[in-house]
Amino acid sequence: MNDFPAYAPSKDHELLRSTVRELADAKIAPFAAEVDEESRFPQEALDALVANDLHAVHVPEQYGGGGADALATVIVIEEVARACASSSLIPAVNKLGTVPILLSGSEELKAKYLGPVARDGAMFSYALSEADAGSDAAGMKTRAVRDGEAWVLNGTKMWITNAGESEYYTVMAVTDPAQGARGISAFVVEKGDPGVSFGPKERKLGIKGSPTRQVILEDVRIPADRIIGAEGSGFKTALATLDHTRITIAAQALGIAQGALDFALGYVKDRRQFGKPIADFQGVQFMLADMAMRLEGARQLTYHAAIKSERAMHGEKVADLTFVSSACKALASDVAMDVTTDAVQLLGGYGYTREFPVERMMRDAKITQIYEGTNQIQRVVMARQLLK
């Protein structure tokens, strides 16, 4: 049995983890509270990630990227989120915006857009949702009409992460209203295209450093070759994309929870009541044990899903990818909400103040249960996979 493979990340993965953690502790964590307090974009984090080629590690080497596998990408996002959830959306959303091109785009499109992301630090957002098309994304109203050698886009996309900061946007739009979901196509829109504008920043509970805005498209004319895949294949591409990128939200949730657990562990060892550290009390120990147990369970499922994602990206048919990606996203985000809430509880009154980071982590954790498909939708997805 000595040759049985370890069910664990490789040495290279663990070296990457230590490298990212060191960088995040030094260059990202010191600004996390300020970024949250001022609701400003974490430019320090972007600069540090770009300088160390960690902002879009998933981009293949042939397009100038690092060619990191899905598990390595998860580890990068997890470790950045441990320091600052807003900052972790830089590598996470770069993957979300570019996976449609990796899955369905032409070689010309890949060469044109993946290179600037990998080499120059350009960010790439994803524009699917609308005000009346959230969970029911197929109900979108944004239109794209062919006009000679161009497409003309009109509509408003809602809840777009890093909108206004990102240079590029994957936009889903209806090209044939009579076909329903099969009449939706995907396009690349550039920030500088005439007719592109952005709504005001949403005032949010958490992840305040990552701007969330409308992307407004008014007679936006783009070249015809900016369509991603075949006309009418956009919604299929969108669903396939989420099978891969829900895993990155699970990674973000893991990092937020780990950051809260780590801080709580340090606190309970130092905080004294009744003449001894509160870590000596069995009730506190049970809380800590449950927090760590649930977090490790979610981590193992997320890493398992990441490995399946990597196999699928290389063309293997992975029958249960949709199930495991939904499962890890729902589990990890629920665990993150529980763990951060317990961390606040362990700090008592201090945990409720902005002097300590756990209240920020609790606020940040909530969105992981909502975006890229609410956890209620994840349960619908999982049930359908089980019953089909």
UniProtKB/TrEMBL annotation:
InterPro entries: Acyl-CoA_DH_CS, Acyl-CoA_Oxase/DH_mid-dom, Acyl-CoA_Oxase/DH_mid-dom_sf, AcylCo_DH-like_C, AcylCo_DH/oxidase_C, AcylCoA_DH/ox_N, AcylCoA_DH/ox_N_sf, AcylCoA_DH/oxidase_NM_dom_sf. It comes from Actinomadura soli. Residues 126-220 form the Acyl-CoA oxidase/dehydrogenase middle domain. Belongs to the acyl-CoA dehydrogenase family. Pfam families: Acyl-CoA_dh_1, Acyl-CoA_dh_M, Acyl-CoA_dh_N. This is Probable acyl-CoA dehydrogenase fadE25. GO terms for molecular function: acyl-CoA dehydrogenase activity; flavin adenine dinucleotide binding. It catalyses: a 2,3-saturated acyl-CoA + A = a 2,3-dehydroacyl-CoA + AH2. Residues 10-119 form the Acyl-CoA dehydrogenase/oxidase N-terminal domain. Transmembrane segments: none annotated. Keywords: FAD, Flavoprotein, Oxidoreductase. Residues 232-387 form the Acyl-CoA dehydrogenase/oxidase C-terminal domain. The keyword Flavoprotein applies. Its cofactor is FAD.
